[in-house]
Amino acid sequence: MYYVDPHIHMVSRTTDDYETLAKMGCVAVSEPAFWAGFDRGSVDSFRDYFRQLTETEPRRAAQYGIQHFTWLCINAKEAENVSLSRDVIAMIPEFLDAPNVIGIGEIGLNKNTKNEATIFLEHLELAIKYQQQILIHTPHLEDKHQGTRMILDMLQGDARIEPGRVLVDHVEEHTIGAVLDAGFWAGMTLYPVTKCTPARAADMIEKYGPERLMANSAGDWGPSKPTAIPDLVLELRRRGHSEAAIRRVVYENPLKFFAQSKKFNFSPPE
């Protein structure tokens, strides 16, 4: 079965991982800008990172028949540095015309601080000004419920935001309902430790249905598994879900969401 990974940080993966993903049926990836494993100190370090996302990663992916799309931002973990964040936000428009850039993200909150919220709102202004889709990072573990509620309040407080063009990622059992009820798309991140297992994701699909719901591996710097989506496919098959129902979550839904970007020039495999 073909699938799309709508949130995976391929800069943290080896080229062998691209080959493995291709063998498992992955035909496209969407890579949000994120943390580099350390806090960067200058706007030029982000400029180099954005070149990696818009030049190097598409070439690496193409070697294995995978199409690579990306999102740009300064992530919430580094948003405490408001001055640097504003310099990065001011620089982002230099890259918005790159052929694989489909939106602003992953923006959001980490520890739910005032500075993080300030930079989140300034990212929203950027996305609105340039008519970009938005990909949201919700906090980890004990900060998730409060942070998700804060994010939803900020999004819903701006009438210019179109919920159908926003993906709220890393949802779990205690946040998915609020995200879907507000009209946003929801992403389930399949981490082996800190987020969601394939079994838990299958439970949420069965409870909430497939509408505006997708799954991703994140494939981050920490413990993660880039082939987590095939694990979900196996779990759903084990439970008796039809191939059409599985395909909707892991392939059709990401394509439907990303197709709202004029830059999403996806070529389906023959």
Task: Report on this structure.
- By secondary structure, the protein is α/β, with parallel strands linked by helices.
- It has a single domain, classed as Metal-dependent hydrolases (TIM Barrel), CATH 3.20.20.140.
- 42% of the residues lie in helices and 15% in strands.
- It has nine helices and eight strands.
- Strands 1-2-3-4-5-6-7-8 form an eight-stranded parallel beta sheet.
- The mean pLDDT is 96.
Short description:
This protein has 270 residues and is an alpha/beta fold.
Task: Estimate nothing, just give the exact number of structural domains.
Answer: 1
Main sheet: strand order: 1-2-3-4-5-6-7-8
| Spatial extent as radius of gyration | 17 Å
Q: What is the succession of H and E elements? A: EHEHEHEHEHEHEHEHH
